[in-house]
Protein: Sigma 54-interacting transcriptional regulator
Amino acid sequence: MVETLSNTKTEHEPPTQSRSIGVLVFVLRYDDLLAGDAFALPPLARSGATIEIHRAPRVQPVSMDGKTLLLPDPYVSRSHAVVARAGHEDRLEDRGSRYGTFVNGAPIDAPRPLADGDVIEIGHSLFVYRLVNEAMAMRLAAHPTGLAHGPTRTLCPEVVQLALDLERVARTDQPVMLLAETGAGKEIAARYVHEKSGRAGPCGAIDCGAIPGDMIEAELFGHRRGAFTGAHEERRGRIRSADGGTVFLDEIGNLPEAAQASLLRVLQEREVTPVGADRAHKVDVRWVAATNADVFAPGARFRADLRTRLAGYVGRIPPLRRRREDLGLLGAHILAKADVARASITKKAARALLLGELPGNIRELGRALTSAAVLAGDGAIDVQHLSVLAAREASESGEVSLSPSDPEETSEARKPRQQRPDRAVIEGALDKARGVQGEAARLLGVHERQLARWMDALGIPRGRARVR
Ligand SMILES: Nc1ncnc2c1ncn2[C@@H]1O[C@H](COP(=O)(O)OP(=O)(O)OP(=O)(O)O)[C@@H](O)[C@H]1O
Structure:
Protein backbone atom coordinates (compact mmCIF):
# COMPACT_ATOMS: atom_id res chain seq x y z
CA MET A 1 0.00 0.00 0.00
CA VAL A 2 1.43 3.34 -1.02
CA GLU A 3 0.99 6.12 1.51
CA THR A 4 -0.43 9.22 -0.16
CA LEU A 5 1.23 12.48 0.80
CA SER A 6 0.14 15.71 -0.70
CA ASN A 7 0.79 19.45 -0.83
CA THR A 8 -2.39 20.07 -2.78
CA LYS A 9 -4.68 22.89 -1.71
CA THR A 10 -7.69 24.55 -3.20
CA GLU A 11 -7.06 27.63 -5.37
CA HIS A 12 -8.74 30.05 -2.98
CA GLU A 13 -7.86 28.66 0.40
CA PRO A 14 -8.70 31.34 2.98
CA PRO A 15 -5.88 32.58 5.19
CA THR A 16 -6.08 30.66 8.45
CA GLN A 17 -4.70 31.48 11.85
CA SER A 18 -1.66 29.39 10.96
CA ARG A 19 -0.98 31.62 7.91
CA SER A 20 -0.98 34.89 9.76
CA ILE A 21 2.46 36.40 9.28
CA GLY A 22 2.85 38.98 6.55
CA VAL A 23 5.90 38.89 4.29
CA LEU A 24 6.56 41.49 1.62
CA VAL A 25 8.65 40.24 -1.31
CA PHE A 26 10.57 42.70 -3.48
CA VAL A 27 10.16 41.17 -6.96
CA LEU A 28 11.89 43.42 -9.50
CA ARG A 29 12.46 46.92 -10.85
CA TYR A 30 11.16 47.70 -14.32
CA ASP A 31 14.44 49.41 -15.30
CA ASP A 32 16.58 46.31 -14.73
CA LEU A 33 14.91 43.00 -15.53
CA LEU A 34 18.25 41.21 -15.47
CA ALA A 35 19.15 42.13 -11.90
CA GLY A 36 17.54 39.04 -10.35
CA ASP A 37 17.87 40.76 -6.96
CA ALA A 38 14.48 39.70 -5.53
CA PHE A 39 14.30 39.05 -1.82
CA ALA A 40 11.87 38.62 1.07
CA LEU A 41 11.75 41.53 3.51
CA PRO A 42 11.82 40.72 7.25
CA PRO A 43 8.45 39.21 8.29
CA LEU A 44 5.88 41.52 9.86
CA ALA A 45 5.39 39.22 12.82
CA ARG A 46 4.36 41.52 15.66
CA SER A 47 1.75 44.24 16.09
CA GLY A 48 3.46 47.57 15.61
CA ALA A 49 6.06 46.20 13.15
CA THR A 50 6.68 48.59 10.24
CA ILE A 51 8.59 48.78 6.98
CA GLU A 52 9.21 52.26 5.58
CA ILE A 53 9.87 52.55 1.85
CA HIS A 54 12.20 55.36 0.74
CA ARG A 55 14.10 56.39 -2.38
CA ALA A 56 17.83 55.66 -2.37
CA PRO A 57 20.61 57.18 -4.50
CA ARG A 58 20.57 55.63 -7.99
CA VAL A 59 23.89 53.82 -7.77
CA GLN A 60 22.96 51.96 -4.61
CA PRO A 61 21.52 48.42 -4.78
CA VAL A 62 18.05 47.71 -3.33
CA SER A 63 18.70 47.25 0.39
CA MET A 64 17.26 47.21 3.90
CA ASP A 65 18.55 49.62 6.50
CA GLY A 66 16.99 48.45 9.74
CA LYS A 67 13.24 48.79 9.18
CA THR A 68 13.63 50.87 6.02
CA LEU A 69 13.67 49.59 2.46
CA LEU A 70 15.81 51.75 0.20
CA LEU A 71 14.89 51.67 -3.48
CA PRO A 72 17.22 53.25 -6.05
CA ASP A 73 14.20 54.08 -8.20
CA PRO A 74 13.64 57.66 -9.48
CA TYR A 75 9.87 57.05 -9.45
CA VAL A 76 9.95 56.44 -5.69
CA SER A 77 9.58 59.50 -3.45
CA ARG A 78 12.05 60.32 -0.70
CA SER A 79 9.50 59.00 1.82
CA HIS A 80 7.04 57.02 -0.29
CA ALA A 81 5.02 54.48 1.70
CA VAL A 82 4.84 52.43 4.85
CA VAL A 83 3.57 48.95 5.68
CA ALA A 84 2.48 48.60 9.30
CA ARG A 85 1.09 45.69 11.28
CA ALA A 86 -1.95 46.66 13.33
CA GLY A 87 -3.35 43.74 15.31
CA HIS A 88 -3.69 40.82 12.88
CA GLU A 89 -3.60 43.01 9.79
CA ASP A 90 -0.91 44.63 7.69
CA ARG A 91 -1.79 47.98 6.14
CA LEU A 92 -0.09 49.77 3.30
CA GLU A 93 -0.19 53.55 3.33
CA ASP A 94 1.02 56.00 0.71
CA ARG A 95 2.90 58.94 2.26
CA GLY A 96 1.70 61.45 -0.33
CA SER A 97 4.19 60.19 -2.92
CA ARG A 98 4.52 61.91 -6.30
CA TYR A 99 3.75 58.86 -8.47
CA GLY A 100 1.43 56.99 -6.11
CA THR A 101 1.19 53.47 -4.73
CA PHE A 102 -0.86 50.79 -6.48
CA VAL A 103 -2.37 47.53 -5.24
CA ASN A 104 -3.47 45.07 -7.92
CA GLY A 105 -3.34 47.88 -10.49
CA ALA A 106 -5.48 50.39 -8.54
CA PRO A 107 -4.06 53.48 -6.78
CA ILE A 108 -4.58 53.67 -3.02
CA ASP A 109 -5.66 56.88 -1.33
CA ALA A 110 -6.15 55.57 2.23
CA PRO A 111 -4.42 52.92 4.37
CA ARG A 112 -5.14 49.64 2.58
CA PRO A 113 -5.33 46.31 4.46
CA LEU A 114 -3.23 43.79 2.54
CA ALA A 115 -4.43 40.35 1.47
CA ASP A 116 -2.44 37.26 0.52
CA GLY A 117 -1.17 37.54 -3.07
CA ASP A 118 -1.64 41.31 -3.42
CA VAL A 119 0.63 42.81 -6.06
CA ILE A 120 2.02 46.20 -5.08
CA GLU A 121 3.65 48.77 -7.38
CA ILE A 122 5.73 51.49 -5.78
CA GLY A 123 7.32 53.70 -8.43
CA HIS A 124 8.71 51.24 -10.96
CA SER A 125 9.27 48.54 -8.36
CA LEU A 126 7.05 45.50 -7.95
CA PHE A 127 6.22 43.67 -4.70
CA VAL A 128 4.05 40.73 -3.69
CA TYR A 129 2.53 40.40 -0.23
CA ARG A 130 2.15 36.93 1.28
CA LEU A 131 0.57 35.53 4.40
CA VAL A 132 2.57 32.57 5.69
CA ASN A 133 2.75 30.38 8.75
CA GLU A 134 5.49 30.78 11.33
CA ALA A 135 7.66 27.97 9.93
CA MET A 136 7.61 29.50 6.43
CA ALA A 137 8.26 33.00 7.84
CA MET A 138 11.36 31.63 9.59
CA ARG A 139 12.45 29.80 6.45
CA LEU A 140 12.15 32.94 4.32
CA ALA A 141 13.92 34.98 7.00
CA ALA A 142 16.76 32.42 6.94
CA HIS A 143 16.85 32.38 3.11
CA PRO A 144 15.71 35.88 2.12
CA THR A 145 16.91 35.48 -1.47
CA GLY A 146 14.90 32.28 -1.90
CA LEU A 147 15.44 28.53 -2.10
CA ALA A 148 16.98 26.69 -5.06
CA HIS A 149 14.44 24.93 -7.26
CA GLY A 150 15.55 23.71 -10.67
CA PRO A 151 17.61 26.28 -12.55
CA THR A 152 16.41 29.21 -10.42
CA ARG A 153 15.54 30.12 -6.84
CA THR A 154 12.00 30.56 -5.60
CA LEU A 155 10.46 33.00 -3.14
CA CYS A 156 6.93 31.62 -3.50
CA PRO A 157 5.92 29.89 -0.24
CA GLU A 158 3.96 27.21 -2.12
CA VAL A 159 6.95 26.39 -4.34
CA VAL A 160 9.41 26.59 -1.42
CA GLN A 161 7.27 23.99 0.39
CA LEU A 162 7.01 21.88 -2.77
CA ALA A 163 10.78 21.98 -3.31
CA LEU A 164 11.41 20.90 0.30
CA ASP A 165 8.83 18.08 0.00
CA LEU A 166 10.24 16.91 -3.32
CA GLU A 167 13.76 16.85 -1.92
CA ARG A 168 12.56 14.70 1.00
CA VAL A 169 10.45 12.38 -1.16
CA ALA A 170 13.22 12.08 -3.78
CA ARG A 171 15.34 10.12 -1.33
CA THR A 172 12.63 7.42 -1.04
CA ASP A 173 11.19 5.14 -3.75
CA GLN A 174 7.79 6.87 -3.65
CA PRO A 175 6.31 7.62 -7.06
CA VAL A 176 5.57 11.32 -7.49
CA MET A 177 2.50 12.79 -9.18
CA LEU A 178 2.77 16.44 -10.23
CA LEU A 179 -0.37 18.46 -10.89
CA ALA A 180 0.08 21.63 -12.90
CA GLU A 181 -1.15 23.68 -15.79
CA THR A 182 0.74 23.64 -19.05
CA GLY A 183 4.13 25.36 -18.99
CA ALA A 184 4.17 25.71 -15.18
CA GLY A 185 7.37 23.70 -14.71
CA LYS A 186 6.39 20.01 -14.43
CA GLU A 187 9.46 18.77 -16.27
CA ILE A 188 11.74 21.07 -14.27
CA ALA A 189 10.22 19.63 -11.06
CA ALA A 190 10.58 16.05 -12.35
CA ARG A 191 14.27 16.64 -13.13
CA TYR A 192 14.68 18.21 -9.69
CA VAL A 193 13.34 14.98 -8.12
CA HIS A 194 15.74 12.94 -10.25
CA GLU A 195 18.70 15.15 -9.30
CA LYS A 196 17.87 14.95 -5.58
CA SER A 197 17.26 11.19 -5.72
CA GLY A 198 20.95 10.52 -6.34
CA ARG A 199 19.99 7.82 -8.85
CA ALA A 200 22.86 7.05 -11.22
CA GLY A 201 20.73 6.24 -14.29
CA PRO A 202 19.27 8.80 -16.73
CA CYS A 203 16.05 10.78 -16.45
CA GLY A 204 13.88 9.87 -19.43
CA ALA A 205 10.91 12.12 -20.24
CA ILE A 206 7.94 10.78 -22.21
CA ASP A 207 5.12 13.05 -23.36
CA CYS A 208 2.21 10.59 -23.38
CA GLY A 209 0.14 13.10 -25.35
CA ALA A 210 2.64 13.41 -28.19
CA ILE A 211 3.00 9.73 -29.13
CA PRO A 212 0.30 8.19 -31.35
CA GLY A 213 -1.94 5.81 -29.36
CA ASP A 214 -0.99 2.72 -31.38
CA MET A 215 2.75 3.36 -30.86
CA ILE A 216 2.81 4.18 -27.18
CA GLU A 217 3.31 0.63 -25.86
CA ALA A 218 6.20 -0.04 -28.27
CA GLU A 219 7.68 3.34 -27.34
CA LEU A 220 7.41 2.71 -23.59
CA PHE A 221 8.12 -1.00 -23.34
CA GLY A 222 10.22 -1.57 -26.48
CA HIS A 223 9.57 -4.24 -29.09
CA ARG A 224 11.06 -7.27 -30.75
CA ARG A 225 12.20 -7.19 -34.33
CA GLY A 226 9.22 -8.00 -36.58
CA ALA A 227 6.69 -7.50 -33.74
CA PHE A 228 4.64 -5.29 -36.09
CA THR A 229 4.90 -3.75 -39.54
CA GLY A 230 7.83 -1.36 -39.53
CA ALA A 231 9.57 -2.96 -36.51
CA HIS A 232 12.78 -3.54 -38.48
CA GLU A 233 14.93 -3.84 -35.42
CA GLU A 234 14.60 -4.64 -31.74
CA ARG A 235 14.24 -1.63 -29.39
CA ARG A 236 14.65 -1.39 -25.60
CA GLY A 237 11.89 1.20 -25.12
CA ARG A 238 11.96 4.31 -22.94
CA ILE A 239 11.42 2.59 -19.59
CA ARG A 240 14.31 0.17 -19.91
CA SER A 241 16.48 2.97 -21.31
CA ALA A 242 15.97 4.82 -18.00
CA ASP A 243 16.89 1.75 -15.90
CA GLY A 244 18.59 2.88 -12.70
CA GLY A 245 17.18 6.38 -13.16
CA THR A 246 13.84 8.16 -13.41
CA VAL A 247 10.95 7.88 -15.86
CA PHE A 248 8.96 11.10 -16.24
CA LEU A 249 5.52 10.42 -17.72
CA ASP A 250 4.18 13.79 -18.83
CA GLU A 251 0.47 14.23 -19.68
CA ILE A 252 -0.27 10.84 -18.11
CA GLY A 253 -3.99 11.48 -18.59
CA ASN A 254 -3.49 10.89 -22.34
CA LEU A 255 -2.31 7.30 -21.89
CA PRO A 256 -4.69 4.95 -23.75
CA GLU A 257 -6.55 2.41 -21.60
CA ALA A 258 -4.64 -0.62 -22.91
CA ALA A 259 -1.32 1.07 -22.16
CA GLN A 260 -2.61 1.97 -18.68
CA ALA A 261 -3.16 -1.72 -17.95
CA SER A 262 0.33 -2.64 -19.23
CA LEU A 263 1.93 0.18 -17.25
CA LEU A 264 0.16 -0.95 -14.08
CA ARG A 265 1.73 -4.41 -14.54
CA VAL A 266 5.17 -2.80 -14.92
CA LEU A 267 4.70 -0.91 -11.66
CA GLN A 268 3.44 -4.00 -9.83
CA GLU A 269 5.96 -6.52 -11.18
CA ARG A 270 8.88 -4.12 -11.72
CA GLU A 271 9.49 -5.73 -15.07
CA VAL A 272 8.84 -4.81 -18.68
CA THR A 273 7.75 -7.14 -21.47
CA PRO A 274 8.55 -5.67 -24.91
CA VAL A 275 5.81 -5.81 -27.55
CA GLY A 276 6.00 -9.20 -29.30
CA ALA A 277 8.34 -10.69 -26.67
CA ASP A 278 7.59 -13.54 -24.30
CA ARG A 279 10.30 -12.69 -21.80
CA ALA A 280 10.13 -9.89 -19.23
CA HIS A 281 13.09 -7.73 -18.17
CA LYS A 282 13.57 -6.46 -14.61
CA VAL A 283 13.71 -2.66 -14.30
CA ASP A 284 14.55 -0.35 -11.44
CA VAL A 285 13.11 3.10 -12.07
CA ARG A 286 11.64 5.95 -10.00
CA TRP A 287 8.34 7.15 -11.40
CA VAL A 288 7.30 10.76 -11.77
CA ALA A 289 4.01 11.39 -13.56
CA ALA A 290 2.43 14.73 -14.43
CA THR A 291 -1.05 15.78 -15.35
CA ASN A 292 -3.20 18.83 -15.62
CA ALA A 293 -5.30 17.27 -12.79
CA ASP A 294 -7.49 15.49 -15.35
CA VAL A 295 -6.75 12.02 -13.95
CA PHE A 296 -8.34 13.09 -10.66
CA ALA A 297 -11.44 14.59 -12.25
CA PRO A 298 -14.73 12.75 -11.55
CA GLY A 299 -15.43 10.41 -14.47
CA ALA A 300 -11.82 10.58 -15.74
CA ARG A 301 -10.98 7.73 -18.13
CA PHE A 302 -8.03 6.77 -16.00
CA ARG A 303 -7.66 3.57 -13.97
CA ALA A 304 -8.03 4.30 -10.26
CA ASP A 305 -5.54 1.52 -9.39
CA LEU A 306 -2.85 3.01 -11.64
CA ARG A 307 -3.56 6.49 -10.31
CA THR A 308 -3.14 5.24 -6.72
CA ARG A 309 0.15 3.55 -7.66
CA LEU A 310 1.54 6.67 -9.30
CA ALA A 311 0.27 9.10 -6.66
CA GLY A 312 2.67 8.22 -3.82
CA TYR A 313 3.33 11.90 -3.24
CA VAL A 314 1.04 14.40 -4.95
CA GLY A 315 2.54 17.86 -5.50
CA ARG A 316 0.78 20.83 -7.02
CA ILE A 317 2.89 23.36 -8.91
CA PRO A 318 1.11 26.71 -8.76
CA PRO A 319 0.40 28.53 -12.02
CA LEU A 320 2.45 31.67 -12.61
CA ARG A 321 -0.50 33.92 -11.66
CA ARG A 322 -0.18 32.47 -8.12
CA ARG A 323 3.60 32.86 -7.92
CA ARG A 324 4.20 36.41 -9.11
CA GLU A 325 6.87 36.82 -6.43
CA ASP A 326 9.06 34.65 -8.71
CA LEU A 327 8.67 36.89 -11.78
CA GLY A 328 11.93 38.75 -11.10
CA LEU A 329 14.02 35.61 -10.63
CA LEU A 330 12.38 33.78 -13.56
CA GLY A 331 12.60 36.81 -15.85
CA ALA A 332 16.28 37.38 -15.10
CA HIS A 333 17.01 33.69 -15.71
CA ILE A 334 15.07 33.64 -19.00
CA LEU A 335 16.77 36.79 -20.33
CA ALA A 336 20.26 35.71 -19.25
CA LYS A 337 19.72 32.36 -21.01
CA ALA A 338 18.74 34.24 -24.16
CA ASP A 339 22.00 36.25 -23.91
CA VAL A 340 20.17 39.54 -23.42
CA ALA A 341 22.72 42.00 -21.99
CA ARG A 342 20.29 44.55 -20.51
CA ALA A 343 16.52 44.85 -20.44
CA SER A 344 14.03 47.30 -19.04
CA ILE A 345 10.26 47.54 -19.44
CA THR A 346 7.78 50.40 -19.43
CA LYS A 347 5.13 50.46 -16.71
CA LYS A 348 2.36 49.83 -19.26
CA ALA A 349 4.14 46.84 -20.76
CA ALA A 350 5.02 45.53 -17.29
CA ARG A 351 1.35 45.57 -16.39
CA ALA A 352 0.43 43.73 -19.59
CA LEU A 353 3.16 41.13 -19.21
CA LEU A 354 3.89 40.70 -15.51
CA LEU A 355 0.46 41.37 -14.09
CA GLY A 356 -1.53 39.68 -16.86
CA GLU A 357 -2.93 36.16 -16.80
CA LEU A 358 -0.23 34.31 -18.81
CA PRO A 359 -2.21 31.05 -19.17
CA GLY A 360 0.86 29.42 -20.76
CA ASN A 361 2.71 30.12 -17.50
CA ILE A 362 6.54 30.16 -17.39
CA ARG A 363 6.82 28.90 -20.95
CA GLU A 364 4.65 31.78 -22.16
CA LEU A 365 6.57 34.29 -20.03
CA GLY A 366 9.78 33.01 -21.63
CA ARG A 367 8.43 33.38 -25.16
CA ALA A 368 6.99 36.80 -24.53
CA LEU A 369 10.05 38.21 -22.73
CA THR A 370 12.71 36.93 -25.11
CA SER A 371 10.97 38.00 -28.30
CA ALA A 372 10.09 41.40 -26.74
CA ALA A 373 13.72 41.92 -25.66
CA VAL A 374 14.91 41.13 -29.19
CA LEU A 375 12.45 43.60 -30.70
CA ALA A 376 13.11 46.34 -28.14
CA GLY A 377 16.86 46.19 -28.83
CA ASP A 378 18.54 48.85 -26.67
CA GLY A 379 15.24 50.50 -25.72
CA ALA A 380 12.72 49.56 -23.04
CA ILE A 381 10.26 46.75 -23.78
CA ASP A 382 6.96 48.45 -24.60
CA VAL A 383 3.48 47.11 -25.32
CA GLN A 384 4.05 46.96 -29.10
CA HIS A 385 6.95 44.53 -28.51
CA LEU A 386 4.71 42.01 -26.82
CA SER A 387 3.60 40.37 -30.06
CA VAL A 388 3.39 36.96 -28.36
CA LEU A 389 0.71 38.25 -26.02
CA ALA A 390 -1.08 39.87 -28.96
CA ALA A 391 -0.96 36.51 -30.76
CA ARG A 392 -2.53 34.77 -27.79
CA GLU A 393 -5.27 37.37 -27.54
CA ALA A 394 -5.93 36.95 -31.27
CA SER A 395 -6.06 33.17 -30.93
CA GLU A 396 -8.45 33.45 -28.00
CA SER A 397 -10.70 35.74 -29.98
CA GLY A 398 -10.67 33.25 -32.87
CA GLU A 399 -8.46 35.30 -35.22
CA VAL A 400 -5.73 32.66 -35.23
CA SER A 401 -6.36 29.00 -36.00
CA LEU A 402 -5.92 26.67 -33.04
CA SER A 403 -6.12 23.51 -35.12
CA PRO A 404 -2.73 22.50 -36.49
CA SER A 405 -2.79 21.24 -40.03
CA ASP A 406 0.84 20.10 -40.18
CA PRO A 407 1.07 16.46 -39.04
CA GLU A 408 4.73 17.05 -38.11
CA GLU A 409 3.54 19.35 -35.37
CA THR A 410 2.10 16.57 -33.17
CA SER A 411 3.93 17.62 -30.00
CA GLU A 412 2.83 21.21 -30.58
CA ALA A 413 -0.70 20.10 -31.36
CA ARG A 414 -2.22 21.17 -28.07
CA LYS A 415 -0.57 24.59 -28.10
CA PRO A 416 -2.09 27.64 -29.78
CA ARG A 417 -0.54 28.42 -33.15
CA GLN A 418 1.70 31.48 -33.04
CA GLN A 419 0.89 34.60 -34.98
CA ARG A 420 3.82 35.63 -37.17
CA PRO A 421 5.79 38.42 -35.51
CA ASP A 422 7.04 41.40 -37.51
CA ARG A 423 9.94 40.87 -39.95
CA ALA A 424 12.12 43.02 -37.64
CA VAL A 425 11.59 40.61 -34.74
CA ILE A 426 12.47 37.58 -36.85
CA GLU A 427 15.53 39.26 -38.35
CA GLY A 428 16.57 40.52 -34.93
CA ALA A 429 16.39 36.99 -33.53
CA LEU A 430 18.36 35.59 -36.49
CA ASP A 431 21.04 38.24 -36.08
CA LYS A 432 21.28 37.58 -32.37
CA ALA A 433 21.58 33.86 -33.07
CA ARG A 434 24.24 34.58 -35.73
CA GLY A 435 22.05 32.98 -38.37
CA VAL A 436 21.58 29.66 -36.53
CA GLN A 437 17.89 28.97 -37.10
CA GLY A 438 17.46 26.55 -34.19
CA GLU A 439 18.86 29.17 -31.81
CA ALA A 440 16.73 31.96 -33.32
CA ALA A 441 13.64 29.76 -32.96
CA ARG A 442 14.51 29.20 -29.30
CA LEU A 443 14.81 32.96 -28.78
CA LEU A 444 11.39 33.45 -30.34
CA GLY A 445 9.95 30.56 -28.33
CA VAL A 446 8.74 28.64 -31.39
CA HIS A 447 9.61 25.40 -33.12
CA GLU A 448 12.36 25.62 -35.76
CA ARG A 449 9.90 24.47 -38.45
CA GLN A 450 7.57 27.34 -37.53
CA LEU A 451 10.44 29.81 -37.93
CA ALA A 452 11.35 28.27 -41.31
CA ARG A 453 7.74 28.74 -42.50
CA TRP A 454 7.76 32.38 -41.39
CA MET A 455 11.11 32.97 -43.13
CA ASP A 456 9.77 31.44 -46.34
CA ALA A 457 6.62 33.53 -46.16
CA LEU A 458 8.67 36.72 -45.70
CA GLY A 459 11.29 35.73 -48.29
CA ILE A 460 14.09 35.72 -45.71
CA PRO A 461 16.86 33.44 -47.03
CA ARG A 462 17.57 30.37 -44.95
CA GLY A 463 21.02 29.29 -43.72
CA ARG A 464 24.01 31.15 -42.37
CA ALA A 465 24.51 33.08 -45.64
CA ARG A 466 22.40 35.90 -44.27
CA VAL A 467 24.67 36.65 -41.30
CA ARG A 468 25.76 40.27 -41.49
N1 LIG B 1 11.85 27.07 -11.86
C1 LIG B 1 12.13 27.41 -13.13
N2 LIG B 1 13.19 28.17 -13.40
C2 LIG B 1 13.48 28.55 -14.66
N3 LIG B 1 12.79 28.18 -15.74
C3 LIG B 1 11.74 27.41 -15.53
C4 LIG B 1 11.35 26.97 -14.23
N4 LIG B 1 10.26 26.21 -14.35
C5 LIG B 1 9.98 26.17 -15.66
N5 LIG B 1 10.86 26.88 -16.37
C6 LIG B 1 10.90 27.06 -17.83
O1 LIG B 1 9.56 27.16 -18.30
C7 LIG B 1 9.37 26.34 -19.46
C8 LIG B 1 8.32 25.29 -19.17
O2 LIG B 1 8.82 24.42 -18.16
P1 LIG B 1 8.49 22.85 -18.19
O3 LIG B 1 8.79 22.27 -19.53
O4 LIG B 1 9.12 22.23 -17.01
O5 LIG B 1 6.92 22.96 -17.97
P2 LIG B 1 5.82 21.84 -18.20
O6 LIG B 1 4.79 22.13 -17.18
O7 LIG B 1 6.47 20.50 -18.20
O8 LIG B 1 5.34 22.25 -19.65
P3 LIG B 1 4.31 21.44 -20.61
O9 LIG B 1 2.98 21.50 -19.93
O10 LIG B 1 4.35 22.26 -21.87
O11 LIG B 1 4.84 20.06 -20.75
C9 LIG B 1 10.73 25.76 -19.81
O12 LIG B 1 11.34 26.59 -20.77
C10 LIG B 1 11.48 25.82 -18.50
O13 LIG B 1 12.87 25.95 -18.69
Q: What stands out?
A: The chain has three domains: 21-142, 175-311, 338-466.
